[in-house]
Amino acid sequence: MPNAQIPVLKKNRTKKRTSRKIAILLILLFIVLLAVLFFRSSLSKVSEIRFDGNVFSTREQLLNRSGLAVGDQYFGVSASDVSEKLREIQSIQQVTVDKQFPGIITIHIKEFATVAYELQSDGSLRAILANGTSVGVGSSGIAVEKPILTKWKSDDPYKAKLCDALSRIPGEWTADISEIIPAPIPSFPDRIKMYTRSQFEVITTVSLLNSKISYLNQVLETEDPGVITMLEADSYVPFKPDTSEESQEKDTTQ
Question: What membrane topology is annotated for this entry (predicted)?
């Protein structure tokens, strides 16, 4: 009797396995159908692209460089790829891509800080960023507390180093500097001259600027206008009064 029941058990197992396979196939077909319907619906598309923090790059420029467009597949957008493409723009320092389902992509732009301006041959000004990039000012306006770079060649290697040095100095310490020009000599190829709004002339080098800036501000706050030299040694010499004018005044009084 026990042997006669064995074929019946095998038939029951076969029916159960067949029913399970059919159920799995139906579930898979249902999932595929849902996926097809979803990817054809507007929920799977990019519905809005937002940018913030961009000053020197327009929305159109950012869209062209990133390759993004409304209607793209939302899940096909790679945040790392978009970030890498946008960082190729020289004015951009950092990019953060935030994807918000459904369909919203927000891109946060951090640009290099403006450290100076440069006067062009046509009289216009261009902003010089911390990495040495020159960009048009446009509607961003001009920060009057930033110095103007004049007589610098575009390929001067010390220009980018100067911009990096300025970016590391607090803005209030450079607010009085109105102009910076190159003044190289054989012993100091990165020598520069700076002129301040308080009528000082400053001689130093690009490589020494960061370490000497505290001395500069000390003199600016306590002394009358003069020449400040900040090289291997620091010195300050006040401007001499015009002796010719003094002598003329003495002659008239006599």
Answer: Single-pass type II membrane protein
